[in-house]
Amino acid sequence: MEDLHAAQYESGSLNYEITDTILEGRQCQNLKITCKVKDDVGIQSVQARVASDAAGFSQSVDYYGKYNPKTQVAEFNFPIKEFLPTANYYISGLFIEDFAGTNTSVWFSESPQHEPVKKIFIQTSNPDTVHAEIDLNRIYVYAEPTHPEAPDGETKVTVNFYARDNISGLGTCQYYFIDPQGIRHGNYY
């Protein structure tokens, strides 16, 4: 069966619902997002970009959802933990892939070229809007050749550093090295 049509978002079908839930043993809110989506071949995956307009805080997260082919409803459940900022939350993008591999992107904004943005105000109990800190005086780098008996330039590098966050805790850390040829090597944990 040839796929001649991209998946379609039903304009105006975006809905939000806030409920209380327990996640990892802690009380939090759940932002349930639903919308109607249809395709002639079938939907393989749906993804929503959740954003907030908190001052001084820039965050958007791509979040996979579930699709019900009988009701043609895509559903996303986005946990709003107590340390996220009190702000308006909204979908800025919707990404749909059908079984033929055809991708559809739907954008939500104030632009007349996009779907109208729909926001929901969410109050959180302990918003963390201060970025994590790293102690610049406590960064330690250790290096040793991986083949000391026949040095070939390959080096094992260990980096120890001290960082903290006052409310939500330290999340993913990312770092980069620049080798002698100027090539950047990065990693995260």
Automatic annotation (TrEMBL):
Protein name (database record): Uncharacterized protein
